[in-house]
Design a protein that fits this description.
By secondary structure, the protein is an alpha/beta fold. It has a single domain (15-136), classed as HUPs (Rossmann fold). 42% of the residues lie in helices and 16% in strands. It is built from seven helices and five strands, in the order H-E-H-E-H-E-H-E-H-E-H-H. The chain has helices at residues 2-6, 27-36, 59-69, 85-92, 104-120, 140-148, 159-170; strands at 15-20, 42-47, 76-80, 96-100, 125-129. The strands form two sheets. Strands 1-2-3 form a three-stranded parallel beta sheet, covered by helices on one side. Strand 1, helix 2 (27-36) and strand 2 form a beta-alpha-beta unit. The radius of gyration is 17 Å and the shape is globular. It binds coenzyme A. Coenzyme A binds at residues 19-21, 23, 26, 28-29, 32, 48, 50, 53, 84-85, 100, 102, 113, 116-117, 131, 135, 138-141.
């Protein structure tokens, strides 16, 4: 009887934000995105600016690459924000954040970020996901370096991104 009633309860959509600079998106980011969708309904992949990084791709290019990779995926929304993550989350009314945790080296930075953000916005919760082993040491910088030296970048990023990287280094 109780089980039958459950079917009529409209489940609220579970939303989360995955922030990052995505300069550019790699197979490692994609792995994290797909993993998160096992337990949330909709993921907002939010491209933003890292204060100490000089990006290779503009906001528009980074978003276009993400949109190209996730074309036809209604459960993945690509956005960008400028400013503090907590302000963006509050504006959106989303308080769940997805982050990738690759190696021990990520831990300090992530821990500091979570605690600082939580002091500004106590409602925030962060879920850390670990990518597949082969992506543990992958980073956007490594991919850019491989592309710059004409290496096999297609092993680490989707074809759309590989082509954009080749284009950048041709010009
Ligand atoms: N696979 C492959 N690479 C990955 C990865 C994965 N699963 N997860 C992270 N990386 C790489 C990224 O490509 C990036 O490489 P790079 O340094 O060579 O560019 C690096 O790991 C770290 O990137 P990411 O985890 O995406 O973080 P970020 O440093 O780009 O983003 C922000 C951090 C932007 C989310 C953070 O600075 C922020 O929230 N900024 C908004 C301003 C703010 O609120 N500041 C206060 C913070 S307390």
């Amino acid at each position: 009887m109780v089980q039958q009633e459950y079917r009529f309860i409209r489940r609220k959509e579970r939303l989360a934000v995955y922030p990052g600079s995505f300069d550019p998106v790699t197979n490692g980011h994609i792995d994290i995105i797909e993993r998160s969708l096992k337990f949330i309904d909709k993921l907002i992949v939010s491209v933003t600016h890292h204060p100490t990084k000089k990006p290779l791709f503009s906001f528009k290019e980074r978003m276009e690459m993400l949109q190209g990779v996730f074309r036809d995926r209604k459960e993945i929304v690509i956005e960008y924000f400028d400013g503090l993550l907590v302000d963006y989350l509050e504006k959106k009314g989303v308080f769940l954040v997805i982050r990738g945790l690759r190696a021990v080296s990520d831990f300090d930075y992530e821990f500091q970020m979570v605690l600082t953000n939580r002091r500004m916005l106590p409602r925030i919760e962060t879920i850390f996901l670990t990518p597949k082993e082969e992506y543990l040491y992958l980073s956007s910088s490594a991919v850019k370096e491989i592309a710059r030296l004409n290496g096999p970048v297609e092993r680490f990023v989707p074809e759309i991104v590989a082509e954009k990287l080749r284009e950048k280094h041709r010009s």
